[in-house]
Design a protein that fits this description.
Elements (H helix, E strand, L loop, with lengths): L27 E3 L2 E3 L4 E2 L2 E3 L7 E3 L6 E3 L13 H12 L2 H17 L6
Antiparallel strand pairs: 1-4, 2-3, 2-6, 5-6
The structure holds zinc ion (ZN).
């Protein structure tokens, strides 16, 4: 099994349309990914290929994961989503209010720049 040995019938660079005529194409598996916007995408992979943990959603560009209930967080924080995620995680408005108050207090008390 030398890597320099060309496999009979396989053509390098064959596109998706070329797969059908290659009878010996490796079997493919479809894997569902969900992004934070609940878009489902189902790319197919060669069965012997490593399935990536994340897949870019073709509709909105956010990273999508295989766990529908727990999609990966968007890389760029939009205010609304950040707040929502924050609330979901905290489950407590009091906690959030206190943390905010503490942060404000820290901002006020550190009127001098720290070097
Ligand atoms: Zn999406």
């Amino acid at each position: 099994m030398g890597s320099g040995n060309a496999i009979r019938g396989s053509r390098v660079g064959a596109g998706p349309m070329g797969e059908a005529e290659r009878g010996e194409a490796a079997p493919r598996v479809r894997v569902s990914f969900w992004c934070a916007n609940m878009h489902e995408t189902r790319p197919s992979f060669a069965s012997d290929a490593a399935i990536p943990e994340h897949w870019d959603c073709p509709r909105c560009g956010l990273p999508a994961g295989q766990d529908e209930a727990n999609p990966p967080a968007p890389p760029r924080n939009e205010p609304y989503k950040t707040h929502l995620a924050y609330v979901k995680e905290r489950r407590s408005d009091k906690d959030g209010a206190q943390i905010l108050a503490e942060a404000l207090e820290r901002l006020r008390s550190s009127s001098r720049p720290i070097y």
